[in-house]
Amino acid sequence: MLCSMIGAMALVAMMAGAALAQLVNKTVLTLDGAKKIAAAAEAKAKAEGARVVIAVVDDGGSLLLLERLDDTQVASVNVGIDKARTAAIYRRPSKVFEDQVRSGRVAALALHGAVPLQGGVPIIVGGKVIGAIGVSGETPGQDEGIAMAGAVVAASFTKQ
Amino acid sequence: MTTLKIALTGIVIIVVASTSYAGPVSDKQGLTLDGAKKVIAATVAEAKRVNVPGGSIAVVDEGGNLLALERLDQTFAASANIAVGKARTAALFKKPTKVFEDVIKSGRTSMVTLGGDLQNFTPLQGGIPLEWEGMVVGAIGVSGAASAQQDEELAIVGAKSLDSMEMAGLTNGNAPLPVTYIESQTVAASFARGAVLVGEGENMMHAARNYMVHASHRDKAGVVEIHEFDTDIVYVLKGSAILITGGTPVGTQTIAPHELRAPTVNGGERRKLVPGDIVIIPNGVPHWFKDVEAPFDYYVVKVGSGREKREER
Fold first, then answer.
1. Contact B33 A58 (CB under 8 A)
2. A1-20: per-residue pLDDT in tens?
3. Considering only the top CATH level, what class is B184-312?
4. Is residue A54 a contact partner of residue A66, using CB atoms and an 8 Å limit?
5. 3-state secondary structure chain A
6. Fewer Cβ atoms within 10 Å of its own Cβ: the N or the C terminal residue of chain B?
């Protein structure tokens, strides 16, 4: 009898534990956060006279916000989104893949959903990638610098 | 007589030539990122007012290329691309996308094949061309609201906001505005529910300037408000309220850019406001209407003391 009660209690405890494990809390980038990141990137781009597209995606690589600065080549719209998606879904700067291809790992071109082009940077809060910013329009190094200027703003983000 | 005829013919030829020959290049107005952001801001404001479940808003230029996009929190991810497609389709055809949806629905199914050559052709209601001085300069596309109908309603609000900006002379910022006259019945109706009289809706054209006018109405206490840029000039018309100004707000949250709110404040000055009182609350000063004796109606002129600074950010 006692044994079965303990067994039942243990089972309940296990179920409760299992229920907790079914969900995990996740920090999500809001439109407001995306705007703050884009604003910082835009400020840097304007200071440099850079003509770029700034794209911010969520952790699934889907577009949250985009800005094409005046007089930027239109093809950069898709390139910017692609860079951001690459950084978000692979959780690393897109430069990693460009470097791999350049150093001889041509197979990196086959990675699904990735563009191996410098300029995509993950947005990290609390050690987790919650999205990414992609910049396109100028030189690879300048694109990435502008993206970084946006991504670092996330360090100041707190949950409300 | 013959000489005159020849001369006249000459004039006619000159006139025809000057009107039909446009030259190798011509000037064209293009939508800027700033313009696109303002269109999106007007659309988002309307989306929040009507309490939409979500929405992605895309603005493209006249070539159908994306200029700016915002996806509201919780909106399904696929809507971003659909919004771009709707905007692109409206821009490239210079028509609302509902036209295509209707044509296809009424039996011309082969219309969907247009998607073969046109990247991202989206014949779905919710795309509206943006016009400036009678020319299509781009388009807005909305996806993710409660229905296709609502998508389009929001897009129309965005498109109209550009008309208002045109009226406001946003290109040079100094164009004369038409005189705005709001008749007493409209004013009374606005006070009955509380509304923005100038700076939104049909009086949106003033939004480019540094002022707004609110017909404010309160039935109960508000929250602590802090406007980073707006100074409130208040004239009390009806009812009474205790106004707390200054002090230290507790639990401050940012609800919109440069707009902070808090549930309460420590300290501050306390005044009782009655009809006929005027109070000027400079930007940055916390203020709280509490202990309201309803209905409390007050006329507010909001002056954007730092609005130029705001634009620079």
1. no
2. 455 555 555 555 555 555 56
3. mainly beta
4. yes
5. CHHHHHHHHHHHHHHHHHHHHCCCCCCCCCHHHHHHHHHHHHHHHHHHCCCCEEEEEECCCCEEEEEECCCCCCCHHHHHHHHHHHHHHCCCCCHHHHHHHHCCCHHHHHCCCCCCCCCEEEEEECCEEEEEEEEECCCHHHHHHHHHHHHHHHHHCCCC
6. N
In this structure, whether the domain defined by A27-156 belongs to CATH 3.30.450.150 is answered with: yes
Interface of B with A in 24-43 (CB under 8 A): 32-33, 37
Residue of B32, B65, B71 with shortest CB distance to A65: B71
Taking contacts as CB-CB distances below 8 angstroms, the residues of chain A near B257 are: 35
* CB within 8 Å: B77 and A58: yes
Q: What are the structural domain ranges in chain A? A: 27-156
Rounded to whole angstroms, what are the CA distances from A139 to A52, A69, A95, B48? 10, 15, 13, 39
In angstroms, rounded to a whole number, what is the distance separating the alpha carbons of residues A105 and A97? 9
Q: Confirm if A49 and A125 have CB atoms less than 8 A apart.
A: no
In angstroms, the separation between the Cα of residue B68 and the nearest Cα of chain A is 4
pLDDT digits (tens, 9 = 90+) for B206-263: 766 778 899 999 999 999 999 998 999 999 999 999 999 999 999 998 887 788 999 9
Distance CA B39, CA A48 (A): 26
A85 CB burial (10 A radius; 0-12, 13-18, 19+): buried
Of B70, B82, B143, B252, which to mutate for an interface test with A (greatest number of A Cβ within 10 Å)?
Answer: B70
The residue written with tokens 């600065």 in the block is A69
- Please state, in angstroms and rounded to a whole number, the distance separating the CA atoms of residues B141 and B138: 10
- Identify the closest residue of chain A to B61 by CA–CA distance: A74
Residue B31 burial by CB count (10 A; 0-12/13-18/19+): exposed, middle or buried? Answer: buried
Q: Among B222, B214, B217, which Cα is nearest to B243's?
A: B222
| Chain A interface includes B310 (CB < 8 A) | no
B117, two tokens: 């050559």
**pTM beyond cutoff 0.90:** no
Chain A neighbors of B254, CB-CB under 8 A: 32
Find where tokens 């602590």 sit: B224
- What is the domain partition of chain B in residue ranges? 33-168, 184-312
- CA B74/CA B55 separation, integer angstroms: 9
C-beta of residue B136 within 8 angstroms of C-beta of residue B142: no
What class does CATH assign to B33-168? Answer: alpha beta
- Answer yes or no: is the ipTM higher than 0.90: no
A38 within 8 A of A56, measured Cβ to Cβ:
yes
Is the CB of A67 inside 8 Å of chain B's CB atoms? Answer: yes
Cβ-defined contact of B65 to A77 (cutoff 8 Å) = yes
